[in-house]
Each structure stands twice: as C-alpha cells, then as structure tokens.
Specification:
This protein is an alpha/beta fold. Helix content is 49%, strand content 14%. The chain is built from 42 helices and 29 strands. The strands form nine sheets. Strands 7, 8, 9, 10, 11, 12 and 13 form a seven-stranded mixed β-sheet that branches. Strands 6-5-14-16 form a four-stranded antiparallel β-sheet. It is elongated, with a radius of gyration of 38 Å. The termini are far apart.
Length: 1155
C-alpha cells in the first residue's frame, strides 16, 4: 500500500495494457489492481482521453497520500530509489506515448500532474511541451532517458527528446534527498496517513473540493475563489463543445447550428480592453445560443502576427550581438518557433480568464500544418483563376522593417514640420528657362528629384494657358509637362501639384491616367537611390532622405528657386510596429486583383445574403469596395507562409519565368516539362500578408479545402462574424471576397461591429494620457463578471463604449447583489420542513391554474419575470446586448430584491406574521425559486461565474437537472408559462412600489425616524386596486414602515381637504396617501418646497417626452413604443395636475396659519 511506483504503473497499465504484461516490472499487488481498475477505465488514445485518465490518476494518487510521505518509504536508499523511480517514470511515459496520437501534449499534461501532486514546488500548468526551459535538465541523463523511450515507443526524435526532458526533470525531483526535520515530518505524516482507510479516501475523491458547488455562502461574493476552478471544470466537462447540445433538453433545440469564428488575436498579444470587449460580446452570443438549443461552435485561434513576432525575435538576436541575416533563415525560424512555444500565446490563457467558452479542442493557429496547406491551396487557386499577379505598384514601405506593410499597420499622427513653396520655371520652345513660373508647395522636397509632371485643374484660369507646356525640374533641368486633371483642388494651396508617381499613391494614379514615367529616387533603406544621379543630381545619391531634404532646400534657396518655408502641422504615416515614418514606394510585389471579388462582396450585402449591423456601415462597405484597388499580399519577411512560387536558378534567360505550385515537387514537374530534367528551382523568399491567411479563417478552420469533411458541412458558412468596426475593410471584406471566390458561398450571414472602449470622458485610451484600464487588473480587483457587465451595459453596435472605475464598482456591487439574493432564497428554503418539497426539475414550470391561484403580488412578479424572458430572448436573438443588461439589472435589483423579497418576508418570517409552511409561504418559496432560477438563466450569458455559483446551490433533483447552468435549457415561454402574464397585477405592483417610495420620501422630508411606525390612509380611485391593497396590508406596512393596525384604504371620492397635522402625498392622478405627523413635525414651508420641486421635475419630464413625440416619430415608431410614450405623457399630465392642486391647498393652508 506504500509502493508509489506500483500505483503509477497500476493506474496507467489499466488504461493502456493488461496488468499481466507489466507485473514483472511493477510488481503490482492485487489490492492496487482492484482499486485502479475501479477508478480508471479511459483509453489514452487522444489528448482529451489523456486528460481524463490523468485526472483520475491524480485523484487516485491523492487518495493514497503518496505525496512526500510515501515517497520517503518507497525509497530506502538513494541509488535504489533513483533507479527504480526512473524506470517507473519512463514506463509511464512509454504507456502514454505509445497509445496517444498527440504524445507531446499528453506527456506534458501528465508530467504537470506528477509535479503538482508529488513535490513541494509544483510548476504552473504546462500547455505545450516546449514551454519547459532546457536549464531544468542535464544532458547525460536526458540522452539516457531519450534512448530508453525511443527504443520502446519508436516516436520521432523531437517528441522523444521532449519526453526525456520531462522524465529527467521528474526523476531529479523525485530522488532528491530530504534530510533533518523534513524527513522526520514525512515519517510522522506517513504513519498518520496510513491509519486512514482506503474507503474513506475514496469517498473523499468522489466529492472534490469545488467551492462553486458546495460550502457556505458568505456575506460577500468571493469571485477569486470561484472563477478559476469553475472555468477549468467547465472546460474539462466538455461544455464548450458543440456536441454538448445533445445533452441540453431545450424546447427550441433542432438541427440549427450557430457558428461564431473568433477574430484570431496576435500570438504576441496581451489582453487589452478591445479583446475584453469582443470576448464578452461573443461569449454572450455563444452561451445564449448554446442554452437556446443551437449546436454552437465558437471557434478560437491565434494569428502568427508576421511583422510583430519577427520584430520581437530580431530584438532578441540584436541583444545577443547577432541578427537573422547572420544566423540564416532556417535557424531564425527555429528561434521564432521556440519563442512562440515559450512565450507566445499568453493571450489565450487571458481569454480564458474572461470566461470565453470557446471550443479550445478546435483551436487553430494560422501557421499550423492544416492552415498552411489551406493558404497554399488558396494562393494556387486564385492564381489559376487569374486573380494573382506580380507587378510594380505603390506600397507602404517600412525602411526599418524592410518590408511592405498593410494600411492597417500604418498609423497617422500629427507632427510639426514645414511647408516648402518653390518655383517650377516654365521652359520656352528651345527648352530654356523663362521668367514666368508655377508656384508649387510640398512637405517633402526630396521627392522633387523624382517628379514627372506638374498638374493643374483643367478649368483653373491661372494655369489654363500653361497646360501642355513644359517646366524645368529644379536643380536638374529636366523637362516635364504641365498636365490637367480634375483630381486637383483649385482652392487648396497654390492650385498646382508636383507629381511624383513612384512616391505618392495619388500621384501614381494620376501617372497611370497620363502615362507618365516612374522614377524611384528613394531606396528601400530610406536613402536616395542611384536614380537621382541618372536624372542629373549625383550630389544627393546615398544621402538619407531627411539629410537630402535639408541640403536640397539650401540649394533651392541659393539658386533663387525657393519662395518660402512655413511651419506646418501635418498627418504623418507611421509604422505601427517600428514607429518610423512610412515611405510610399514603387515596389515589385504580389497582388490580388479585387475587381471581380469586390463586386461579389458588394452584391452579397446588397441582396441581403450578408447583413451588416449597424446598418449605417453598409455605406462605408460600399465606399471601400467600389474603389477595387489591387491588394498587395507579399511581405519581405521570413516568419509567415512562404509564397508558393518557384523560380529557375540555372536558366539565366528565364528571368521572367516562375511556377506556382502546391509544393516543390509539383513545381519541378512543371519546370521539367518546360526546361528539361536538369532544371533547378528556388522558392520566392517573401511571405504572404497576414491578412491573406486570416482571410481564409471562417472556412479553413473547419476543414477547407476538404469540403467533404464533416466539420465543413456542418459549420460552414458561419452564422455571425463579430469584430471591431475598425477592421471592416482590412479583414472582414477580405474574408467575404475570399470566401465567395473560393467556396462560392458567403462565409457568414451577419457582420456585427462593436466600437472602441474609451475612458469615462470619451477619450481614446493611451499610455501617454495615463487613462489605460488594464483588463487583467480590473479582473483582479472587481472580478470577471463585473468587467464583462460593465463593458456590455453600454455596448451598442458601431458605437464606442465608455468605461470607468465607477462603472466597474457598480457592476461588482450587482454581482454581489445576485449572490446575496441567492443566499436569501436558498437560506429561507433550507429553513423549511414542508411536506411538499420544492426541487428543481428540467421541466419546472408554474401551471396556469397554480399561478391564477396566487396572491396578486406573486402573480405580478411571475408576470414581470415572464415578460423579462420575452424581452431578453428577443434582444439576444436580434444581437442586442446593452438593453437586456439594463432590464435584467432593474428586475433583479428593484422588482425582485428591493420589493418582492422584502414582501415575501411577511409570508415566510414568523416575526413579521409569516409562516413558511403555510399555503401562502409555500407559494412564496416557489415564486422565489422560480424567479431566482429564471433570472440566473437570463443573466448567465452576461455574468457566467456568479450565476453558476448560485445556481449550483439551488435545490435540485440530481436525476433531472443538468450538471451546469451553462448547459441548462433556456427558459421556455411556450405553453402555460405564457398564460402567467397578468398585466393588471403588474400595474398594481408598479403603483404599490411608487406609493411606498413616495411614503419613504415623505418620511425622510419630515425627519421621521426609521423605527417609528406611522399611520397611512390610501385614497384610491380604482376600486379593484383598492381591494388589492386591502389584501396586502401586512406587506404594505412592512415596506412603508407603517403600523399595520393604522393602515387604511378608502375611496378617492371620499377624500376631503387635507386635515391639520397631516401630510398628503400625491402618488398619481388616482392615488393620494395621508400620513399624520406630530404637530412639531408639520412644516408647511418644507411641504410647499417639496411639492414645488416635484412639480418642476414633472414639468421637465413632460417637456422631454413631448419633444420626442414628433410627426416623424408617430409615423415611423414601433406601435408598442409609440403607445408607451403616449401613455407616459398622459400620466405625467394627470400627475402634474394633481400636484398643482395639492400645492394650491397647501398654499391656502399656509396663509390661514399666518393669519
């Protein structure tokens, strides 16, 4: 019973091989065999199976207390123990690896569990084998273990070495001698622990410590104790997988799928508020549709982030005194992969902290094997369709990164500079300078050296007579034409533009229209190229572009060609990654022709195949795609998908020949057909733009190009694409173009665009302003639920979202309110011993007959709850997130917690006259449980952790209830529940709340102590409401802190003048309340002031409502919304009239007192 290696091998042997085959090595005893067979039955055939097996093993190991104590007893000597332990561990590794399709992953997980349960310094969770630092292990021991494992498993060298690293690390930990007091402590613990029976230990295993399920409910919600373990449990149970829908007994369940591709965050990324926003929104959609019965797949992944990742690793190399060019491409890529495995992907764990319920078993990485195959296939197919070409066009060039960058990777900032005005002198027929000139302005004088023309508006009277003539390029004397183009703005600057086609995007387009030459005068490193010498300015060759600017302007001044230099603030394009100024350059690159693709994307939105939310972005969509510019897809990087183009290297005459192929082998087949068997090829050194691989995301992640795969058939096209509005064109449009072109189907049916997260003043968060809110810090301080709820409360499609510490505090308080509401309901239930036990059922409904027999306050809260279900469900089906958060918070905090729970105390608590075992008490408990559970279900997509923690503690029938709230069915509104709506009861409930609030305000104005019970007389114009009030005098007395013996309800018609020493409270046009006060408390002046303030408030509200009631509103508004606001206006008018009458009475009384 104390043989640790025996336990190791018993458990893993029963998961993979027969016990008999291992008996000669492990010496397994029968007792261990029986116990292990009772607890382990999984097959270690996949990563998921290994997780299950190791979890069982961990509990088994824990039950025998082999941590520390048993290790000491199992190893009488260092040498014997080390050898025996090493052999056992290696055999465990062999068992896992030989049966696993993912050996490194399985072994990493198992090793992590070993270290957690056996040694005093457990390491953090290890997700990938390469995360382990090599400094843990020794070379000699590693080679020995590697050889042993390799001989027994036959796995590849990489996996073998990785497994050996773990084995040696574990062996060293296990065989380290502990001396002195620690050894004695182990022995003492060993004796003590062996006295515990195996049955007792196994009983402990069956109920692991899960604070979100069991234990007391403290006064404050402890989010830190709940969140991490709960999320791990959700994931371990497989609740995030689309297949879980088969276990959800939802009324709306069918074959409908709901697919939500996650925008892949960069592998270099760290969680910021933008990520927190999309994770919160998408998790709401995923959790709701999962509970609603849809087969929900939220597909996660990471982008390889070509420029950002390469730049980080290059900085590492620079700090080591080397560079990527020095070590070569292959070695550099190995370093990048090593960095990715060790440090990359931290954001995935941070998204888990946000509660993201993605199917992590389907996680994709844009450079994994399948995605790489899909990217190559896409490039080849597009080339076969004639949509990919190589040519010279303008690109954003980063001289520091030495690559072209996308528009999204260019940021514009205002910087102080200069605006230079100079002369373009007209040339005569003989080509010599004349006295007249055209004034031209530029912010980049160095580009003058590459000018090809001067352009004016064709109808500008200042220059119309000069069109067609020639001018002299300053300092060079080259003749260039004066051309006319309507692009020129006559009112801006001098009305004349210098045209530098090779260094300005707009100039390039003008040059294409007028067939102008292209002169590249700035090189890839940002210095002036050899072309400037060929054009007549050799003195500037090799100068940095800024040094050239300084010298050239000095030369213009010395030649009398300068007019002026003025300070000027301009928008400068900066590289998002390196920070230097981007240089527009003419460059040979690979491009995608987008004319046809863009038109298909436009048509998909125009015909309704794709819907954009909010709709106003449809116009922006059209504006971008109608330009139909070629898309540059090549990047001068090493980290990324290498372009599948191959060039002959031993055929000098074939300089323009290339072969596009899926592999080198395919390319050689093509090349040999043309050039013969001795042809040699070299692959294009460039890689594809990151947005190219991301453009395949919705379909490549589910199996494309294998369109016969089960996932592709089931999960493509996606249902919705949720992302930020700032990448509508850069990513979303390209996904639509690629999807329609490659799959002949739009990749998703809906595009949902969220805005930026800003600070409470509406300013963009930035480190320089010091207003950045770190989501991880917010989670640590307020909890995940609070951060999510604060973001979602103000999340409107296409609108920026403000966030402040106050909003986070309020959201945290709301999470605590949910916890305390649950605590009250559950505690009251646990107090009762009613014969009819109230337990949860998957079919739990309140029948029509039962609801109709309830007191009206219960009918009201059930009706409000059902109305809430209707509205929240419809909001979420329409992808509206902010409105339901407000409705849910109002219901839980106000209707349920502040009003009904307080009223229910008069049914349940004996000190208030209640009896929990009475018929009325039982009804109250049913309504409390029904309302609480319904609220938890509706809130779960928004605040998953606190709702799960409360729901787990609800009384449930374990045979009927689901294991988790997140896989519980959404509230079904069909059938008898719909009949629970009682609009009269709801109206009465609202009036009662307003009346009690008015009484409380009046008490505060009159300084009546909270403990003092007052008398109240209700003057009610509605006879039915009067009867309803009479039936709830106990609740009214408790809520208003009144004397139940002195609460009276009378007819409104019997109301006379306000008696002396009585405060008359005007609630509405049909309800007044008289509250007698002591003589010293009557303050007519204060009452007049109070009513005056109330009258001003009513007048302000009425004015605001009347401004909304415009002819356009009455014509276009939803009928329900129109009727609601018209009724609100009428109610405000009547209430205002009642307050005015009361004010007149008080003014008259005040005058009488004065006389």
């Amino acid at each position: 019973s104390r043989c640790a290696p025996c336990i190791f091998l018993t458990v893993f042997a029963t998961t993979s091989f027969s016990l008999a085959g291992m008996a000669h090595t492990s010496k397994v005893c029968r007792q261990h065999s029986a116990l292990s067979e009772a607890h382990v039955s999984a097959d270690v055939g996949s990563w998921q199976d290994c997780v299950a097996s190791v979890e069982v093993w961990a509990d088994f190991a824990r039950s025998f207390r082999i941590r520390k104590a048993c290790l000491h007893d199992a190893m009488p000597s260092t040498s014997v123990g080390s050898r025996y332990w090493r052999e056992s561990l290696i055999m465990v590794i062999v068992l896992i690896v030989k049966r696993s399709s993912e050996p490194c992953h399985c072994f990493a997980f198992a090793s992590d569990k070993f270290s957690r349960f056996f040694w005093s310094t457990p390491k953090p969770p290890i997700q990938k084998v390469h995360h382990v630092r090599s400094s843990w292990f020794g070379n000699r021991a590693g080679h020995q273990a590697s050889a042993a494992i390799g001989a027994r498993t036959g796995i590849n060298a990489t996996a073998t070495t990785a497994s050996a690293w773990f084995a040696v690390g574990l062996v060293r930990k296990a065989t380290r001698r502990r001396r002195g007091a620690r050894t004695q402590r182990w022995q003492n613990c060993s004796v003590k622990r062996r006295s515990v029976s195996a049955d007792e230990e196994i009983a402990k295993i069956s109920e692991p410590s899960e604070p979100w399920k069991h234990g007391p409910m403290p006064g404050r919600y402890d989010f830190a104790a709940m969140e991490k373990g709960m999320y791990e449990w959700w994931e371990r149970m497989g609740f995030f997988k689309p297949e879980i829908v088969d276990k959800i007994d939802a009324a709306s369940k069918g074959d409908e799928t709901y697919v939500l591709p996650m925008p892949p965050p960069n592998v270099t990324g760290r969680l910021h508020m933008g990520h927190a926003m999309f994770a919160s929104l998408q998790d709401v959609f995923a959790r709701f549709h999962r509970m609603y019965g849809h087969r929900t797949l939220w597909l996660p992944g990471m982008d390889h982030a070509g420029i950002a990742t390469q730049m980080l690793v290059e900085r590492q190399l620079l700090s080591e005194g080397t560079s990527r060019q020095a070590i070569g491409r292959d070695a550099f890529l190995e370093r990048v992969w090593m960095w990715k495995e060790e440090k990359g992907g931290a954001i995935i764990e941070q998204l888990r902290r946000m509660g993201a319920s993605c199917d992590w078993s389907r996680e994709q990485f844009t450079l994994n094997e399948h995605m790489s195959e899909a990217v190559i296939e896409a490039f080849v197919r597009l080339h076969e369709k004639g949509l990919i070409f190589r040519g010279q066009r303008m690109v954003n060039w980063s001289p520091v990164l030495q690559t072209a960058v996308s528009d999204l990777e260019v940021e514009y900032a205002e910087q102080s500079g200069h605006l230079f005005h100079f002369k373009y002198v007209l040339a005569g027929p003989d080509g010599k300078a004349e006295d007249s000139y055209i004034p031209v302005a530029t912010t980049r004088p160095e580009t003058i050296l590459g000018d090809a023309a001067v352009c004016v508006h064709p109808e500008d009277p200042r220059y119309k007579h000069m069109i067609g003539r020639s001018v002299l390029v300053p300092l060079q004397g080259r003749l260039v034409p004066v051309i006319a183009d309507k692009y020129v703005d006559r009112e801006f600057g001098t009305g004349a533009l210098k045209i530098t086609p090779a260094h300005d995007f707009n100039d390039f387009e003008i040059a294409q229209r007028h067939d102008l030459p292209l002169h590249s005068v700035i090189g890839l490193d940002g210095s002036m190229s050899k072309t400037v010498a060929l054009l007549g300015s050799p003195q500037y060759e090799g100068l940095d572009r800024y040094e050239c600017r300084r010298r050239l302007w000095a030369d213009l001044e010395s030649r009398g060609l300068a007019i002026s230099r003025a300070d000027h603030v301009q928008r400068v394009p900066l590289s998002q990654r390196s920070g230097e100024i981007i240089e527009p350059l003419l460059s040979d690159q690979w491009f995608v022709r987008t004319e046809e693709m863009a038109q298909k994307a436009l048509d998909a939105v125009a015909c309704g195949e794709i819907r954009i939310q909010p709709e106003r972005y449809t116009k922006i969509w059209r504006g971008w795609l109608e330009e139909k510019q070629p898309w540059c897809v090549s990047r001068q990087l090493w980290w990324g998908h290498r372009i599948p183009v191959f060039y002959p290297t031993n055929r000098p005459e074939a300089t323009d020949v290339y072969f596009v192929a899926r592999s080198m082998e395919d390319a050689l087949v093509q090349a040999r057909e043309r050039f013969g068997p001795d042809i040699e090829l070299e692959q294009d050194p460039d890689v594809l733009d990151t947005w190219f691989s991301s453009g395949l995301w919705p379909f490549a992640t589910v199996g494309w190009p294998d369109e016969s795969s089960a996932d592709f058939k089931k999960f493509y096209p996606a249902t919705i694409l949720e992302t930020g509005y700032d990448i509508l064109f850069f990513w979303v449009a390209r996904m639509v173009m690629m999807g329609i072109t490659l799959t002949e189907c739009a990749p998703f049916r809906e595009i949902y665009l969220h805005g930026l997260v800003r600070d409470e003043k509406g300013q963009k968060m930035s480190k320089t302003k010091g207003n950045v809110v770190d989501p991880l810090d917010s989670i640590a301080k307020y909890g995940t639920d609070a951060l999510r709820f604060a973001l979602l409360t103000n999340s409107i499609p296409g609108m920026d979202t403000p966030l402040s510490a106050g909003m986070l505090e309020n959201a945290k308080a709301f999470a605590n309110k949910i916890w305390n509401v649950g605590k009250f309901v559950i505690t009251e239930y646990q107090k009762t011993n009613v014969s009819e036990q109230i337990v949860y059922s998957a079919e739990h409904v309140l029948s029509t007959t039962y609801v109709q027999g309830m007191p009206w306050i219960e009918r009201a809260i059930v009706s409000k709850c059902c109305g809430l279900v209707e509205s929240v469900t419809q909001f979420l089906l329409d992808n509206k997130v902010a409105p339901p958060t407000k409705d849910l918070k109002e219901f839980v905090q106000e209707d349920f917690a502040a009003w009904y729970i307080e009223a229910s105390k008069t049914r349940l608590q004996p000190q208030l006259g209640g009896d929990p075992e009475s018929h009325r008490g039982t009804i109250a408990q049913r309504v409390l449980l029904f309302s609480l559970e319904t609220s938890l279900k509706l809130l779960h997509p928004f605040m998953p952790f606190v709702t799960e923690a409360v729901w787990q503690r609800l009384p449930r029938d374990s045979a009927l209830s689901p294991a988790s709230l997140m896989v519980a069915p959404w509230v079904d509104l069909r059938g008898e529940v719909v009949a629970a709506r009682d609009m009269d009861a709801e109206a009465w409930f609202t009036k009662l709340c307003a009346a009690v609030t008015a009484v409380r305000n009046a008490r505060a104005k009159q300084d009546i102590p909270p403990k003092e019970r007052v008398a109240l007389t209700f003057w009610c114009a509605d006879d039915r409401f009067a009867d309803a009030l009479k039936s709830e005098l106990a609740a009214i007395a408790w809520l208003a802190r009144a004397d139940i013996e002195k609460v009276d309800v009378r007819s409104y018609n019997d109301k006379g003048e306000t008696p002396a020493r009585v405060v008359r409270i005007v609630v509405s046009e049909e309800l007044d309340i008289d509250m007698p006060v002591k003589e010293k408390q009557v303050d007519l002046t204060k009452e007049v002031l109070r009513l005056g303030k109330q009258l001003k408030m009513l007048a302000s509200q009425l004015d605001s409502v009347e401004k909304k009631i415009t002819p356009s509103f009455l014509e276009k508004a939803n009928p329900n919304a129109r009727d609601k606001i018209l009724k609100k206006r009428d109610d405000l008018v009547l209430t205002k009239e009642a307050v005015e009458a009361q004010l007149r009475d008080l003014e008259a009384m005040k005058k009488q007192v004065a006389l």
